Amino acid sequence: MQRRHLLATLAATAFATPAAHAQGSDQPIRWVVPYPAGGGTDVLARTLSEAMRGPLGQSIVVDNRPGAATNIGAELVARAKPDGLTILSADNAVLAFNEHLFAKLPFHPEKDFSYIGAIGRFPLALVVHPDFPAKTFAEFLAHVKANPGKVNYASPGNGSPHHLAMELFKNRTGSFLVHIPYRGAAPAMADVMGGQVPCMFLDLASGLSVMQSGKVRVLAIGSAQRSALLPGVPTLAEAGVKDSEVYAFQGILGPAGLPAPVVARLNAELNKSFQTAAVQKRFADIGMEALPGTPAQFLALARAESRRWGAVIRAAGIRLD
Protein backbone atom coordinates (compact mmCIF):
# COMPACT_ATOMS: atom_id res chain seq x y z
CA MET A 1 0.00 0.00 0.00
CA GLN A 2 2.88 2.36 0.72
CA ARG A 3 4.04 1.97 -2.89
CA ARG A 4 0.58 2.82 -4.22
CA HIS A 5 0.31 5.87 -1.97
CA LEU A 6 3.72 7.03 -3.16
CA LEU A 7 2.76 6.60 -6.81
CA ALA A 8 -0.49 8.45 -6.28
CA THR A 9 1.43 11.35 -4.76
CA LEU A 10 4.03 11.40 -7.51
CA ALA A 11 1.32 11.16 -10.16
CA ALA A 12 0.35 14.72 -9.43
CA THR A 13 3.75 15.85 -10.72
CA ALA A 14 3.09 14.22 -14.11
CA PHE A 15 6.41 12.40 -14.02
CA ALA A 16 5.86 9.23 -12.00
CA THR A 17 3.46 7.06 -13.95
CA PRO A 18 1.61 7.05 -17.25
CA ALA A 19 -1.57 7.66 -15.28
CA ALA A 20 -0.19 10.97 -14.12
CA HIS A 21 -3.24 12.87 -15.26
CA ALA A 22 -5.76 10.16 -14.47
CA GLN A 23 -7.79 9.66 -11.34
CA GLY A 24 -5.04 7.75 -9.60
CA SER A 25 -2.35 5.16 -10.02
CA ASP A 26 -4.58 2.33 -8.76
CA GLN A 27 -6.20 2.16 -12.18
CA PRO A 28 -4.77 -0.29 -14.73
CA ILE A 29 -3.50 0.72 -18.13
CA ARG A 30 -5.69 -0.67 -20.91
CA TRP A 31 -3.59 -1.89 -23.81
CA VAL A 32 -5.90 -2.20 -26.81
CA VAL A 33 -4.99 -4.81 -29.42
CA PRO A 34 -7.06 -4.47 -32.63
CA TYR A 35 -6.77 -8.20 -33.36
CA PRO A 36 -8.16 -11.39 -31.76
CA ALA A 37 -6.44 -13.01 -28.80
CA GLY A 38 -3.70 -15.49 -29.61
CA GLY A 39 -2.34 -13.77 -32.72
CA GLY A 40 1.13 -12.30 -33.13
CA THR A 41 0.13 -8.75 -32.16
CA ASP A 42 -1.67 -10.01 -29.08
CA VAL A 43 1.28 -12.15 -27.98
CA LEU A 44 3.69 -9.24 -28.39
CA ALA A 45 1.45 -6.91 -26.38
CA ARG A 46 1.20 -9.43 -23.56
CA THR A 47 4.96 -10.06 -23.56
CA LEU A 48 5.76 -6.35 -23.45
CA SER A 49 3.10 -5.58 -20.85
CA GLU A 50 4.62 -8.19 -18.53
CA ALA A 51 8.03 -6.53 -18.92
CA MET A 52 6.70 -2.99 -18.43
CA ARG A 53 4.15 -3.34 -15.65
CA GLY A 54 6.68 -3.66 -12.82
CA PRO A 55 8.80 -0.63 -13.72
CA LEU A 56 5.66 1.44 -14.35
CA GLY A 57 4.16 0.43 -11.00
CA GLN A 58 0.78 -0.28 -12.62
CA SER A 59 -1.10 -3.30 -13.86
CA ILE A 60 -1.66 -3.53 -17.61
CA VAL A 61 -4.73 -5.23 -19.06
CA VAL A 62 -4.71 -6.32 -22.71
CA ASP A 63 -8.08 -5.58 -24.34
CA ASN A 64 -8.67 -7.29 -27.70
CA ARG A 65 -10.88 -5.22 -30.01
CA PRO A 66 -10.67 -6.79 -33.47
CA GLY A 67 -12.63 -5.79 -36.55
CA ALA A 68 -12.90 -3.43 -39.51
CA ALA A 69 -9.24 -3.85 -40.52
CA THR A 70 -8.12 -2.59 -37.06
CA ASN A 71 -10.33 0.52 -37.23
CA ILE A 72 -12.53 -0.52 -34.28
CA GLY A 73 -9.65 -0.71 -31.82
CA ALA A 74 -7.93 2.34 -33.27
CA GLU A 75 -11.05 4.50 -33.01
CA LEU A 76 -11.57 3.41 -29.40
CA VAL A 77 -8.11 4.70 -28.47
CA ALA A 78 -8.39 7.83 -30.60
CA ARG A 79 -11.53 8.78 -28.64
CA ALA A 80 -10.14 7.85 -25.22
CA LYS A 81 -9.24 10.38 -22.54
CA PRO A 82 -5.57 11.41 -22.87
CA ASP A 83 -4.67 10.35 -19.36
CA GLY A 84 -2.15 7.58 -20.09
CA LEU A 85 -4.58 4.81 -19.18
CA THR A 86 -5.39 3.73 -22.76
CA ILE A 87 -2.79 2.77 -25.37
CA LEU A 88 -2.89 0.92 -28.70
CA SER A 89 -0.81 -1.67 -30.50
CA ALA A 90 -0.66 -0.10 -33.95
CA ASP A 91 0.70 -1.85 -37.02
CA ASN A 92 0.94 -1.21 -40.76
CA ALA A 93 -2.84 -0.99 -41.05
CA VAL A 94 -3.33 1.90 -38.63
CA LEU A 95 -0.04 3.60 -39.42
CA ALA A 96 0.41 3.22 -43.18
CA PHE A 97 -2.40 1.42 -45.01
CA ASN A 98 -5.89 2.38 -43.92
CA GLU A 99 -5.77 6.06 -44.78
CA HIS A 100 -5.21 4.97 -48.38
CA LEU A 101 -7.60 1.99 -48.36
CA PHE A 102 -10.66 3.77 -46.96
CA ALA A 103 -12.33 6.88 -48.35
CA LYS A 104 -13.20 7.93 -44.81
CA LEU A 105 -11.75 6.86 -41.47
CA PRO A 106 -13.20 7.57 -38.01
CA PHE A 107 -9.80 8.98 -37.00
CA HIS A 108 -6.75 10.66 -38.53
CA PRO A 109 -3.57 8.57 -38.16
CA GLU A 110 -1.56 11.58 -36.96
CA LYS A 111 -3.97 14.19 -35.63
CA ASP A 112 -5.88 11.81 -33.35
CA PHE A 113 -2.94 9.98 -31.76
CA SER A 114 0.15 10.57 -29.65
CA TYR A 115 3.10 8.55 -30.96
CA ILE A 116 4.82 6.76 -28.07
CA GLY A 117 7.38 4.45 -29.64
CA ALA A 118 8.07 1.77 -32.22
CA ILE A 119 8.12 -1.85 -31.08
CA GLY A 120 9.77 -3.61 -34.00
CA ARG A 121 9.38 -5.16 -37.39
CA PHE A 122 9.52 -8.63 -38.88
CA PRO A 123 9.93 -9.50 -42.54
CA LEU A 124 7.59 -11.32 -44.86
CA ALA A 125 8.87 -14.13 -47.06
CA LEU A 126 7.66 -15.44 -50.41
CA VAL A 127 6.70 -19.10 -49.98
CA VAL A 128 5.33 -21.77 -52.32
CA HIS A 129 3.92 -25.26 -51.90
CA PRO A 130 6.77 -27.81 -52.06
CA ASP A 131 5.38 -29.28 -55.30
CA PHE A 132 5.27 -25.95 -57.10
CA PRO A 133 7.35 -26.25 -60.29
CA ALA A 134 9.59 -23.32 -59.41
CA LYS A 135 12.43 -24.26 -57.06
CA THR A 136 14.11 -20.85 -56.91
CA PHE A 137 12.98 -17.23 -56.97
CA ALA A 138 14.25 -16.80 -60.55
CA GLU A 139 12.24 -19.83 -61.65
CA PHE A 140 9.17 -18.53 -59.82
CA LEU A 141 9.37 -15.15 -61.52
CA ALA A 142 9.85 -16.77 -64.93
CA HIS A 143 6.88 -19.06 -64.28
CA VAL A 144 4.42 -16.35 -63.25
CA LYS A 145 5.50 -14.11 -66.13
CA ALA A 146 4.97 -16.97 -68.57
CA ASN A 147 1.52 -17.62 -67.06
CA PRO A 148 -0.07 -14.20 -66.42
CA GLY A 149 -3.31 -14.44 -64.43
CA LYS A 150 -3.00 -18.21 -64.06
CA VAL A 151 -1.18 -18.32 -60.69
CA ASN A 152 -3.18 -17.58 -57.52
CA TYR A 153 -1.78 -16.31 -54.26
CA ALA A 154 -3.25 -16.36 -50.76
CA SER A 155 -3.28 -13.68 -48.08
CA PRO A 156 -4.84 -13.25 -44.61
CA GLY A 157 -7.23 -10.70 -46.12
CA ASN A 158 -7.68 -7.66 -48.30
CA GLY A 159 -5.38 -4.85 -47.26
CA SER A 160 -3.16 -7.04 -45.08
CA PRO A 161 0.64 -6.61 -45.20
CA HIS A 162 0.81 -9.97 -46.98
CA HIS A 163 -1.63 -8.83 -49.68
CA LEU A 164 0.19 -5.56 -50.23
CA ALA A 165 3.59 -7.27 -50.23
CA MET A 166 2.49 -9.29 -53.25
CA GLU A 167 1.07 -6.18 -54.89
CA LEU A 168 4.45 -4.49 -54.44
CA PHE A 169 6.12 -7.58 -55.91
CA LYS A 170 3.77 -7.46 -58.91
CA ASN A 171 4.45 -3.75 -59.34
CA ARG A 172 8.22 -4.13 -59.20
CA THR A 173 8.40 -7.19 -61.46
CA GLY A 174 5.60 -6.49 -63.94
CA SER A 175 3.92 -9.80 -63.13
CA PHE A 176 0.24 -10.67 -62.70
CA LEU A 177 -1.03 -13.08 -60.03
CA VAL A 178 -4.62 -13.45 -58.79
CA HIS A 179 -5.41 -12.63 -55.16
CA ILE A 180 -7.34 -15.13 -53.00
CA PRO A 181 -8.09 -13.41 -49.66
CA TYR A 182 -8.72 -15.46 -46.51
CA ARG A 183 -9.93 -14.61 -43.02
CA GLY A 184 -6.61 -14.73 -41.23
CA ALA A 185 -3.09 -16.04 -41.74
CA ALA A 186 -3.76 -19.55 -40.43
CA PRO A 187 -6.32 -20.64 -43.08
CA ALA A 188 -4.32 -18.99 -45.86
CA MET A 189 -1.16 -20.77 -44.75
CA ALA A 190 -3.05 -24.07 -44.40
CA ASP A 191 -4.24 -23.92 -48.01
CA VAL A 192 -0.75 -23.12 -49.29
CA MET A 193 0.62 -26.08 -47.32
CA GLY A 194 -2.21 -28.21 -48.70
CA GLY A 195 -1.59 -27.13 -52.28
CA GLN A 196 -4.99 -25.50 -52.82
CA VAL A 197 -3.23 -22.18 -53.46
CA PRO A 198 0.36 -22.29 -54.66
CA CYS A 199 1.98 -19.30 -52.98
CA MET A 200 1.79 -16.32 -50.64
CA PHE A 201 3.85 -13.83 -48.70
CA LEU A 202 4.02 -15.16 -45.14
CA ASP A 203 5.32 -13.40 -42.04
CA LEU A 204 7.91 -15.10 -39.88
CA ALA A 205 5.82 -14.62 -36.74
CA SER A 206 3.06 -16.85 -38.12
CA GLY A 207 4.97 -19.15 -40.41
CA LEU A 208 8.56 -19.67 -39.27
CA SER A 209 7.92 -23.21 -38.04
CA VAL A 210 6.38 -24.36 -41.33
CA MET A 211 9.16 -22.63 -43.27
CA GLN A 212 11.85 -24.42 -41.25
CA SER A 213 10.02 -27.75 -41.41
CA GLY A 214 9.83 -27.77 -45.20
CA LYS A 215 6.03 -27.71 -45.34
CA VAL A 216 6.47 -24.71 -47.63
CA ARG A 217 9.47 -23.72 -49.73
CA VAL A 218 10.87 -20.25 -49.01
CA LEU A 219 12.09 -18.48 -52.15
CA ALA A 220 13.02 -15.01 -50.88
CA ILE A 221 12.67 -12.79 -47.85
CA GLY A 222 11.70 -9.13 -47.72
CA SER A 223 14.27 -7.92 -45.19
CA ALA A 224 17.27 -5.70 -45.94
CA GLN A 225 19.65 -8.50 -44.94
CA ARG A 226 19.27 -12.25 -44.78
CA SER A 227 17.59 -13.59 -41.67
CA ALA A 228 19.66 -15.57 -39.19
CA LEU A 229 16.63 -17.85 -38.87
CA LEU A 230 16.66 -18.61 -42.63
CA PRO A 231 20.28 -18.01 -43.62
CA GLY A 232 20.03 -19.85 -46.93
CA VAL A 233 17.18 -17.71 -48.23
CA PRO A 234 18.13 -14.70 -50.38
CA THR A 235 16.57 -11.30 -49.92
CA LEU A 236 14.31 -9.93 -52.64
CA ALA A 237 16.98 -7.32 -53.32
CA GLU A 238 19.59 -10.05 -53.81
CA ALA A 239 17.15 -11.72 -56.20
CA GLY A 240 17.07 -8.55 -58.28
CA VAL A 241 13.87 -6.84 -57.08
CA LYS A 242 14.67 -3.23 -56.21
CA ASP A 243 12.97 -1.28 -53.40
CA SER A 244 11.40 -4.49 -52.20
CA GLU A 245 11.61 -4.57 -48.40
CA VAL A 246 8.34 -5.96 -47.10
CA TYR A 247 7.71 -6.35 -43.41
CA ALA A 248 5.09 -5.89 -40.74
CA PHE A 249 5.92 -3.28 -38.12
CA GLN A 250 4.31 -2.24 -34.86
CA GLY A 251 4.41 0.49 -32.28
CA ILE A 252 2.41 2.04 -29.46
CA LEU A 253 0.02 4.96 -29.80
CA GLY A 254 -2.06 6.85 -27.27
CA PRO A 255 -4.85 9.39 -27.75
CA ALA A 256 -3.87 12.81 -29.04
CA GLY A 257 -2.92 15.23 -26.30
CA LEU A 258 -1.04 12.86 -23.99
CA PRO A 259 1.14 15.02 -21.71
CA ALA A 260 4.78 14.99 -22.75
CA PRO A 261 6.01 13.45 -19.44
CA VAL A 262 3.55 10.57 -19.88
CA VAL A 263 4.76 9.91 -23.42
CA ALA A 264 8.39 10.12 -22.28
CA ARG A 265 7.86 7.65 -19.42
CA LEU A 266 6.04 5.12 -21.58
CA ASN A 267 8.67 5.45 -24.30
CA ALA A 268 11.50 4.96 -21.81
CA GLU A 269 9.97 1.83 -20.30
CA LEU A 270 9.17 0.41 -23.74
CA ASN A 271 12.79 0.85 -24.81
CA LYS A 272 14.02 -0.69 -21.55
CA SER A 273 11.75 -3.71 -22.06
CA PHE A 274 13.70 -4.65 -25.19
CA GLN A 275 16.65 -5.53 -22.92
CA THR A 276 14.70 -8.06 -20.84
CA ALA A 277 15.31 -11.75 -21.43
CA ALA A 278 11.64 -12.57 -22.07
CA VAL A 279 11.23 -9.91 -24.73
CA GLN A 280 14.52 -10.72 -26.40
CA LYS A 281 13.58 -14.40 -26.57
CA ARG A 282 10.15 -13.65 -28.01
CA PHE A 283 11.65 -11.36 -30.65
CA ALA A 284 14.31 -13.93 -31.55
CA ASP A 285 11.70 -16.68 -31.86
CA ILE A 286 9.76 -14.76 -34.51
CA GLY A 287 12.64 -13.03 -36.26
CA MET A 288 11.57 -9.60 -35.04
CA GLU A 289 13.95 -6.65 -35.07
CA ALA A 290 13.45 -4.31 -32.11
CA LEU A 291 13.18 -0.64 -33.03
CA PRO A 292 14.11 1.36 -29.93
CA GLY A 293 13.94 5.08 -30.39
CA THR A 294 12.05 8.28 -29.75
CA PRO A 295 8.41 9.14 -30.47
CA ALA A 296 9.63 11.45 -33.25
CA GLN A 297 11.53 8.60 -34.90
CA PHE A 298 8.43 6.39 -34.69
CA LEU A 299 6.32 9.09 -36.34
CA ALA A 300 8.93 9.55 -39.09
CA LEU A 301 8.89 5.80 -39.78
CA ALA A 302 5.09 5.76 -39.99
CA ARG A 303 5.07 8.71 -42.37
CA ALA A 304 7.67 7.13 -44.65
CA GLU A 305 5.80 3.82 -44.73
CA SER A 306 2.52 5.59 -45.44
CA ARG A 307 4.04 7.34 -48.45
CA ARG A 308 5.57 4.12 -49.77
CA TRP A 309 2.51 1.93 -49.36
CA GLY A 310 0.11 4.65 -50.44
CA ALA A 311 1.79 4.60 -53.85
CA VAL A 312 1.46 0.80 -54.04
CA ILE A 313 -2.22 0.89 -53.04
CA ARG A 314 -3.09 3.58 -55.56
CA ALA A 315 -1.23 1.80 -58.36
CA ALA A 316 -3.14 -1.43 -57.61
CA GLY A 317 -6.48 0.38 -57.20
CA ILE A 318 -7.24 -1.34 -53.88
CA ARG A 319 -10.19 -0.07 -51.81
CA LEU A 320 -11.82 -1.51 -48.70
CA ASP A 321 -15.01 0.56 -48.72
TrEMBL record:
Keywords: Signal. The keyword Signal applies. Residues 1-22 form the signal peptide. It holds the Pfam family TctC. SUPFAM superfamilies: Periplasmic binding protein-like II. It comes from the Bacteria. PANTHER family: BLR1237 PROTEIN, TRICARBOXYLATE-BINDING PROTEIN. Belongs to the UPF0065 (bug) family. This is ABC transporter substrate-binding protein.
